[in-house]
Amino acid sequence: MHSWVASQIPQVAAIDGHSIRLHTEATSTTLDLNWSNCFMYALGISIDDVETVKNKAHVRTRTDIQFDWEFVAELVAAAVLYKRHGEGVRGDVVVYFDGDRPRHAGLWTGSRVISKWGYGVTHVWDHCLYEAPSTYGDDACMFLPPSKPDVLGAFETWARKRTP
Predict the structure, then answer these.
(1) Region class of 128: left (phi > 0), else alpha (psi between -120 and 50), else beta
(2) What is the distance between the alpha carbons of residues 126 and 110, in angstroms, rounded to a whole number?
(3) Which fold, 21-161?
(4) Burial tier of 73 (Cβ tally within 10 Å: 0-12, 13-18, 19+)
(5) For the whole model, what pTM was predicted?
(6) For 122-157, what is each residue's pLDDT tens digit?
């Protein structure tokens, strides 16, 4: 573990009694992690998956078509991400909203969330439901975990609809 990460973990955990813990350290060799965002991580989608779908949809060079909050909002609207009513179950996808906008996602362990904070070479954290950064919104909802083929099929459809 890099020394700066090792020094940050106790500092973060000491803030107001937080119980945030490092789950997976991002390094120069964690390529899938480095090229993903929180939504991709939570839904089990790699950068190779995204590039394959973009090629198939003939939008590979379009920088405005990303696996981002706009697409996740579409997953929610189309019920590919189906909201769980009641308590979350291990393996559920947690989506944090700021108003109607999805801002962050993670995986529910049954008592905590595993999520990637940021894009690029950023770490994956283990934290309580409301220990995520406040910029991710204050409304966390549990969703049934969709299948990878359903998510990638929806991404292809969404990408094609955005093509002029």
Answers:
(1) beta
(2) 12
(3) endopeptidase fold (from Nostoc punctiforme) (3.90.1720)
(4) middle
(5) 0.87
(6) 788 899 999 888 889 989 999 999 999 999 999 999
